[in-house]
Design goal:
disordered C terminus, five-stranded antiparallel beta sheet, eight-stranded mixed beta sheet, alpha+beta, globular, disordered N terminus
């Protein structure tokens, strides 16, 4: 091992100490002293140290009910699994008549738990009884306490509202009084995390994936905020998860069957129902000033593949070592590469290296592996049987499906608006194609458990971000290298069956995408069809209304986890000006969503990663072992020390969309102080930052701990940064190389941490979204770089504005 260092007299005492630590860590890694020689994939597949699951038991009529919350500590805005046993099966497989659970998040400083007015519940009531089209009692998803002739003997009704109806008014954490009624300034159907109806299966079990919200998403609850008088290291405000089980009797003791609707009618906040509640305390990672005031701040920026890891490391980094605050801004990949080549590179995170035209500063960048994850298609799909399905299939209605296999051609269909529900059933371009994925014989042959299910107008597309990205290019490259997918895009029918026309031999690509020039670095929406309406002909319903882009993969994953398609399809003539208004989230038990996201973000929001077909014909999910196999199959690229993904790899068990993220900087463009801080960041990232867990400073689920060879490369990069920062190119030895072992390809290769950039012309990263001309491939210059979208520093969170919600 060769590490270049400068004389002791040229460095500060702190820099010398850090260099010694880096050297010691390198030696320890080489000797196997760290990680004990254990397979890191096992840790990646068992990352959940510190989750602290809690099980609570019901009482009275619900004494057999046991509810388990899988994570109760170190919570952020994420999804946690809530499961139960010993419940009575929900009455009706298509409605919520009786015997179900209602779940909500509440604040409250009383050790016994919260009161009803402290709970975020009732937001879905603006959609009407039963949360949209889902049959349920008229007041079961409201804060209303008066129900006509139905009387709750345990309830003392508050003063009625102007309409003469009594409500539990929501009382927010800041103590401001809310008006009586079901409206409030803090949450509505688009923001509330309540689960108004959770189904119990015939065997007495059930599960929901519940979104825990911090004070940023739910300001009325204040979860995770600093408590008055607390220190910077103290825990944030605790909150509660409350489960109200509903049986078969109403608040006056009468059976639900005596109601005219044949459904339970009353709110879970009514006193008789509230008395059966189960409560679980929730502990959140602190938001706000967890970093020291006045600490040095260093800028970092990059794409989403590393974002979950960096945000998890920030609180630990600013409490240790130099106590530096590392700010993170999410930007496009080209922006990161441009920043790397500027006079002030800071530290950037990217998957593909800079090229000669990026390096305007003339410096030589250093690349350090920091995060191994995968690009995934996450899904939330609940079983929804056809009318003709057998009883055993109907009995599974509302249950979450746990398996989904997708090949390259199926993903190509989803990305090219080739299903009718991917654009519009009125569009002539796809009128002979299946409605959606669930109606496609190719899909149901691969996923037979979906054959007797019907998803209505869902599963026609994938939520994908609009921005230009290297990850989009990776996905298209995976599609392009599959012969069947390429033939389909060129216009060849899939030969999967006949769709209403005897002359049609199978599904064909939407003609607006035929012969698409791949790989692209974005996801076009090419079909120009818009649906016209007689009452507002000047405002047709187009693809960007029915299938809009989320801002990024984070929004895509969170929206999918909430069952929110982001669509705006209902014309609101009362708006100023009139416009299409946002659709409500899909009802619980009837959700079917697909979203493109990095594996860590997908898991954070409760999505299950689909199994994708690799070059060997295997269907593989992004487990720790599969990501490590995918990384081992990567090949050296034109920049030494940086390997390139191989989405068509035939390596056994390899995940095809494996992504290795590098931290990069140009050492000779840094000050000595900057070099010290960034070297400290890298040392932590491949040390404690590779320990899987849920607490601050650990590696989030969805990442695989880096192999030893990659960690060694990063530590050598840290030493190189220390040696060269604050020096001229001659003093820093800019043109020298520092060999390091990487894990790319078969066996261990000798690569260089720094090396001259390739002389070749940089390839254009963006190609035409239009169909390619026959006989030649159209080339277009690279798109202009997108502006950076800086995130607020971790110690200065922004609190969302309150909104008055009118129902």
């Amino acid at each position: 091992m060769s590490i270049t260092a400068t004389g002791a007299g040229a460095r500060s005492k702190a820099a010398r100490a850090l260099t010694a630590a880096v050297l010691a860590f390198c030696c320890a890694l080489s000797a196997g002293a760290f990680f004990g020689g254990a397979d890191p994939a096992g840790a990646a597949d068992n990352p959940a140290a510190g989750r602290s699951p809690v099980t609570v038991t019901g009482k009275g009529d619900f004494a057999g009910l046991k509810v388990t919350v899988e994570q109760t500590q170190h919570l952020v805005n994420q999804v946690v699994k809530v499961s139960w046993t010993g419940g009575a099966p929900t009455v009706s497989d298509t409605a919520y008549a009786a015997d179900y659970l209602q779940v909500m998040q509440c604040w409250g400083d009383n050790a016994a738990g919260p009161d009803p007015e402290q709970c975020q519940f009732g937001g879905s009531s603006e959609l009407g009884a039963g949360s949209g089209n889902q049959p349920a009692g008229a007041y079961t998803n409201t804060r209303q306490l008066s129900y006509g002739n139905l009387r709750d003997e345990q309830q003392t009704l508050p003063p009625p509202s102007e309409t003469g109806v009594s409500y539990v008014a929501f009382r927010p954490v800041d103590g401001e009084t809310e008006p009586h009624g079901n409206s409030n300034d803090f949450f509505d159907s688009n923001t509330s995390n309540e689960v108004p109806y959770a189904r119990t299966n015939p065997d007495g079990t059930g599960e929901v994936y519940f979104e825990t919200q911090t004070a940023v998403e739910a300001p009325g609850l204040g979860c995770g905020e600093a408590m008055p008088g607390g220190s910077a290291q103290s825990e944030g405000r605790r909150c509660w998860l409350v489960v109200v089980p509903r049986g078969r009797t109403e608040v006056d003791g009468t059976p639900y069957t005596t109601q005219s609707s044949g459904l339970l009618q009353s709110s879970p906040l009514s006193a008789s129902n509230w008395a059966h509640r189960l409560v679980v305390p929730l502990r959140f990672e602190r938001i706000g000033q967890f970093c020291p005031l006045g600490a040095d701040e260093r800028d970092t920026l990059g794409n989403e593949m590393s974002k979950e890891a960096v945000l998890r490391w920030q609180p630990a980094l600013c409490q240790s070592g130099g106590r530096t605050v590392f700010r993170y801004a999410q930007v496009a990949d080209d922006t990161a590469r441009g920043t790397l080549g500027s006079e002030h590179p800071g530290m950037v995170f990217l998957n593909q290296p800079a090229t000669a035209d990026d390096m305007q500063s003339g410096g030589t960048p250093v690349y350090a592996p920091v995060a191994l994850s995968g690009l995934t298609i996450g899904f939330l799909i609940e079983s929804q049987s056809t009318f003709s399905a057998p009883e055993e299939v109907r009995a599974r209605n509302g249950r979450r499906l746990s398996s989904l296999k997708l090949n390259q051609r199926l993903v190509a269909k989803l990305l090219t608006e080739s299903y009718q529900d991917g654009n519009s059933r009125f569009a002539p371009s796809t009128e002979k194609n299946p409605y959606n994925l669930g109606r496609d014989p190719e899909f149901t042959r691969l996923n037979p458990e979906y054959a007797q299910l019907d998803f209505g107008g869902k599963l026609g597309d994938i939520l994908v971000p609009q921005a230009v990205s290297d990850t989009a290019r990776l996905l298209w490259d995976w599609i392009d290298q599959d012969p069947a997918a390429r033939e389909f895009l060129n216009g060849t029918p899939d030969n999967a069956g006949t769709y209403g026309d005897p002359a049609n031999s199978g599904m064909t690509v939407n003609p607006h995408y035929r012969e698409l020039d791949l790989p692209l670095d974005h996801f076009p929406k090419n079909d120009p069809f818009c649906q016209q309406f007689a009452d507002h002909p000047e405002n047709p319903l187009c693809i960007q209304d029915k299938h809009p882009y989320p801002n990024d993969m984070h929004e895509a994953a969170r929206s999918a986890g909430r069952g929110d398609s982001l669509a705006r399809t209902s014309w609101d003539n009362t708006a100023t000006p009139p416009a299409y208004k946002k659709d409500p989230a899909q009802p619980a038990g009837q959700r079917a969503m697909l979203a493109l996201a990095d594996s860590a973000t997908a898991l954070r929001y409760g999505l299950i990663p689909a199994q994708l077909r690799n070059g060997a014909g295997q269907y593989v999910a992004p487990t720790g072992a599969a990501l490590l196999a995918g990384q081992a199959a990567m090949k050296p690229g034109p920049v030494k020390g940086v390997v390139e993904p191989v989405p068509a790899t035939k390596a056994k068990g390899a995940y095809p969309l494996t992504s290795l993220t590098y931290a990069a900087t140009t050492p000779t463009q840094l000050t000595a102080a900057e070099g010290k801080d960034y070297a400290e960041f890298l040392t932590y990232a491949v040390g404690g930052g590779q320990t899987p867990g849920v607490a601050a400073g650990t590696l989030p689920e969805g990442y695989a701990p880096l192999p030893k060879a990659l960690r060694t490369q990063t530590l050598q990069a840290a030493a190189t940064i220390l040696a060269q920062a604050g020096k001229t190119p001659q003093e820093g030895g800019q043109n020298s190389t520092h060999p390091a072992t990487t894990g790319g390809g078969e066996g261990e290769r000798q690569a260089a941490v720094t090396a001259p950039l390739p002389v070749r012309e940089a390839p254009a990263r963006r190609r035409a979204a239009e169909p390619r001309a026959r006989g030649r491939r159209a080339r277009h210059p690279r798109a202009p770089r997108a502006p950076a979208r800086p995130a607020p520093p971790p110690h200065r969170p922004r609190r969302p504005e309150r909104r008055r919600v009118h129902r």
